[in-house]
Design brief:
single chain; alpha+beta; 5 strands; elongated
Length: 157
């Protein structure tokens, strides 16, 4: 029968384990790709001019005043429609679930330069305490769609 023994230096063991943990954490950080929002989250907008400038900075030509202004309440609990809309917001760097139960302002502007538009296209901004917390662009054509706030050229399309 063969018996082997080894003398273990606790200081060296702690250093080796620390280096291994540091290497693993470093690999995780390096391998994660950051999620880039496609819009500027939480832009401060205290006036109509600020909201129009926000949309203009994204590449949209919009009407100088909103076609609709109203208060809306963000649902306290998610549902299928809210979850789908919030998924769009998450791709832009917004998260409406943080505002559940809050009343926010909804401003809708007509977009005048939407590519190949055959029907009106609108930009909606959701504002809470003078900060944009979400929004979308809606093409009202029969086969239109709801998309994020970035212009198609800004998204590289």
């Amino acid at each position: 029968m063969l018996v082997m023994t080894a003398k273990l230096n606790l200081k060296k063991l702690v250093l080796i384990l620390g280096a291994v943990v540091l290497a693993i954490v470093g690999l995780i950080v390096l391998l994660q790709s950051p999620k880039e929002p496609t819009a500027t989250p939480t832009a401060a907008v205290s006036s109509n001019d600020d909201r129009v400038k926000f949309l203009t900075d994204l590449g949209w030509e919009v009407s100088s005043s909103p076609t609709e202004t109203m208060q809306v309440k963000i649902p306290s609990e998610g549902n299928e429609v809210f979850d789908r809309y919030n998924a769009l917001q998450l791709t832009q760097g917004y998260d409406l679930s943080q505002y559940g139960g809050k009343t926010v302002m909804r401003y809708v502007y007509q977009i005048n330069n939407y590519p190949n538009a055959t029907e009106p296209v609108y930009a909606t901004l959701l504002v809470y305490k003078n900060k944009i917390i979400g929004g979308d662009v809606t093409d009202t054509a029969a086969k239109g769609r709801v998309q994020g706030l970035q212009t198609p050229t800004a998204k590289g399309q």
